[in-house]
Structure formats: structure tokens, C-alpha cells
Design brief:
Length: 433
């Protein structure tokens, strides 16, 4: 008989509480995998030679059935291949729950369990922010609420067969709850991150949601640029702090200061937030008194070269000790974007409290006037650079090249040029010929 089970401690007295563990040497590592079984058993009650719990233990039948199940499952796998660590975890979990391996695998493939496993994994990772962890908990709760409403548990197999239909039902659910389509999109993005993590960890290919498969409610929001006065106010706020702080001012935390500096850096180069990383921004690419700054765009598929306005880029990067974020995935990028936007909005609201611009803006409730600080986004930095460069040069083609636009029409939209209005204006002009 193969010896798989041992008492956890061999030094206890015969009647003292002890527990049984499974020990299997893994071929892939050459090291033993030790796994607790949840079986309490003293030395007096354990028969090491027969690998069984003696009758003196009141639950000997239950415990021995569990041990037999584990040994049989390991033997079945070893007839075909070497046992790995995941096999051990799955077999032991099934033995404790009193279920079959197949049923347990089906349960692990439930979307709610995939999301919860990623949520639990993130909880133990100190590199992720508390906001991101809260967002994952919210995603898990929303998924549970959706599944309760449709009275159905979504599995990985369901996603392979009818992901588009499930996605459509999720969007309907969010709309019925009075939530914006952007909320549904963010939810799907986070669920996809959970699925991606599960696929990588378990070598699976569970299908993810494809957001373009849904016809979303379109709300064209105007991207806002900061003017020179507003940009200067934000710059001086972080680089020239007042000696006597205003007690009514919001607290400028280290995270807020870092976020605003990242935002300002992009205001002086037009970089998209997804391209802002330490690979692009370092002393090899940007030096003091440099006249140009070259960086990779669109995940390295092309490059952009921008003119340096004074030494603002270098000074901001230097003040950050050249520390810029590295986004592991789309969800991490979304999380950082959200935090940066909140930092900029909060402090702009204070800085411009006596001279706040109102923006005529498209919203899901129709067109209305909103305060500037309520419509600033991460992309505001890119548009601010476009306006700043045009104000300095009056050269649209230069702005186009600096932003990396293929079409000049895109640049014109960035600069808020109304081409239709210009054509109507010229239509009735009399030159006196």
C-alpha cells in the first residue's frame, strides 16, 4: 500500500489532539506537497501501516471514506500522468465537501466563483489600491445581484456558447437599475480582468466579454482643455505651495500630488495616459534643456516626437523621481485614471472656486451647463497640450504632427474649430467684385 497520509506532528502524546496530512512528492518540482485534510486524530487513533483511522475514533467511518477517496483519485490520475499541485488541491477540496471532482470543477468554473477568487487574490496583494479592491468587491456583489434577478448561475461554458446574449442581459439589468451604460462597460471590463487572471492561472481559455458586441447608448461628451490661467493655477499649486495653507482647502495627500504631477506632465507633451510609463519616460529619452521628447504610442506600434516647452517636462519628471505607473492590464489603467481624475477635479474645484468656468455639455439628461471641475478627465491633459501649442504657434499642422493624428480634421476637433460654422459664414460674403 502506498503511504500518503501522516500525522502532522509525531511528537505529541498518544491521546493529545493531532491531525492527518496528505504528503505527495511532485514529479514537476521534486518536492513534497503537504496538504491538511481537516481530520482531527490522535496518535492512539491512527494506524500508520494500514493508513486508516482506528475504530476508537468516533468518526472513523467518515474519515476513512475520505482517505480512501483521496488515494483512489490520486491513483486514477497516476495511471495517465504525474500528479500536480492543482490535482492535490482539487482532490482534497472535493473530499472535504463530499462531492465529485467533476462537480467541483463545474463549480470552480462558475463566473461568480471566478470573480470571487480574483477578488480574494487582490485582497492579499499590497500593490493594488484600496479603491481597486473596493471596486472588485462591488463587481462581485453586482454579479450576484444580476444572477439572482435572472435566477441562473453563469458558467465558463455558458460564456463559450452565448457570451453575447449574457452580455446583452447584463446591460439590460444595469439599465433597469437606472445605471449608466458606462457603469455596465466598467463592470464588463472588471469581469474580463477576473476571467483573464483565471485563464492564466489555470491554463484555461474561458471566453471574455466583447464590449463592441453591444449597441451602447451614445453620449458624445466634449473633451475640455484647461486654459493658460487654469493650467498655471494647478502648476503653482503643487510646485509653489503657500506658506499659510487655507483651512478650507482640501488636503493635498502624497497620492493627490503625484496624480496631479502626472496629469501636468501630459499637459506639456500630449501623451495619452495609457502611454505614460517608465519605459517611455526616463533620462535616456528626456534630459534637461532637451528641445524634443520622443516616446512610443499605442503600445509601441508607433512613435511621437514633441517639442519641449521650456524645461517643464524634465522638471516635473525630476520632481517625481522619474516614477511613473506601469499598467498591468486595462482594469489597472481604468483604476488609475479614476484616481487621477478625482485628484485633479477635487483641487481644481478649490483653486477656481471664485472664477469657475461653466461648460455647455452633453449629458445623459440632455445638454446643460456644468462646472469645469466636473468635466475634466484624463484626456483633458492631451487636449490642453493641443490648445497650448496652437496658442504659441498658430500652426494647425504642427499640432497635428505633435499629437500623432493621421487626419487634420481630428486636430481641428481638438482645437474646437467649427468647420460648418466657417462655411456658412463665408457663403454670403461680398467682396465687391
Amino acid at each position: 500500500m502506498k503511504t500518503l497520509f501522516y500525522l502532522k506532528s509525531g511528537k505529541t502524546k498518544p491521546t493529545e489532539p493531532n491531525s492527518i496530512v496528505l504528503r505527495v512528492r511532485l514529479a514537476e518540482t521534486g518536492k513534497p506537497k503537504v496538504k491538511g485534510l481537516g481530520i482531527s486524530c490522535s496518535r492512539k487513533d491512527w494506524n500508520q501501516e494500514d493508513q486508516q483511522v482506528r475504530r476508537s475514533n468516533l468518526q472513523f467511518k467518515k474519515h476513512n471514506a475520505q482517505l480512501k477517496f483521496i488515494s483512489e483519485q490520486i491513483e486514477l490520475i497516476e495511471r495517465e500522468r504525474n500528479v500536480n499541485a492543482e490535482d492535490i488541491d482539487l482532490i482534497v477540496e472535493a473530499s472535504i465537501r463530499g462531492t465529485s471532482i467533476q462537480e467541483l470543477e463545474n463549480q470552480s468554473l462558475l463566473l461568480s466563483n471566478i470573480v470571487k477568487s480574483y477578488r480574494d487574490y487582490m485582497e492579499d496583494d499590497p500593490t493594488y489600491s484600496p479603491n481597486y479592491k473596493r471596486r472588485l468587491r462591488s463587481v462581485s456583489n453586482l454579479l450576484d445581484k444580476f444572477e439572482q434577478s435572472v435566477k441562473y448561475k453563469i458558467s465558463g461554458n455558458d460564456l463559450s456558447r452565448k457570451a453575447t446574449l449574457i452580455q446583452s442581459e447584463i446591460v439590460k439589468f444595469f439599465r433597469s437599475e437606472g445605471k449608466k451604460d458606462s457603469t455596465a462597460k466598467n463592470f464588463l471590463t472588471n469581469v474580463n480582468a477576473c476571467i483573464g487572471h483565471y485563464n492564466k492561472l489555470h491554463n484555461q481559455e474561458i471566453k471574455q466579454f466583447v464590449k463592441k458586441d453591444t449597441k451602447w447608448a451614445v453620449t458624445k461628451r466634449k473633451i475640455i482643455a484647461l486654459n493658460t490661467i487654469e493650467l498655471k493655477a494647478l502648476y503653482k499649486f503643487v510646485f509653489e505651495p503657500v506658506t499659510e495653507p487655507d483651512p478650507e482647502a482640501p488636503v493635498l495627500t502624497p497620492a493627490d500630488k503625484r496624480n496631479i504631477k502626472h496629469f501636468l506632465f501630459r499637459c506639456f507633451c500630449g501623451m495619452r495616459i495609457g502611454d505614460m510609463n517608465q519605459t517611455n519616460i526616463n533620462l535616456n529619452r528626456l534630459q534637461k534643456d532637451s528641445t524634443t521628447f520622443t516616446y512610443h504610442q499605442d503600445k509601441g506600434t508607433k512613435t511621437a516626437t514633441v517639442y519641449c516647452i521650456n524645461n517643464y517636462l524634465f522638471d516635473i519628471a525630476e520632481s517625481l523621481n522619474w516614477k511613473f505607473p506601469e499598467f498591468k492590464n486595462e482594469t489597472a489603467l481604468f483604476s488609475y485614471s479614476h484616481n487621477e481624475t478625482q485628484s485633479v477635479r477635487k483641487h481644481l474645484a478649490y483653486l477656481l472656486r471664485d472664477n469657475m468656468r461653466e461648460i455647455y455639455h452633453n449629458t445623459e439628461k440632455g445638454q446643460q451647463y456644468l462646472n469645469l471641475c466636473d468635466v475634466v478627465t484624463t484626456h483633458t491633459a492631451r487636449k490642453t497640450f493641443a490648445h497650448l501649442l496652437y496658442d504659441l504657434t498658430k500652426d494647425v499642422m504642427l499640432v497635428r504632427d505633435q499629437l500623432g493624428h493621421t487626419k487634420v480634421e481630428t486636430t481641428m476637433r481638438y482645437l474646437d474649430f467649427n468647420m460648418d460654422g466657417s462655411s456658412n459664414l463665408l457663403k454670403n460674403v461680398e467682396l465687391g467684385f
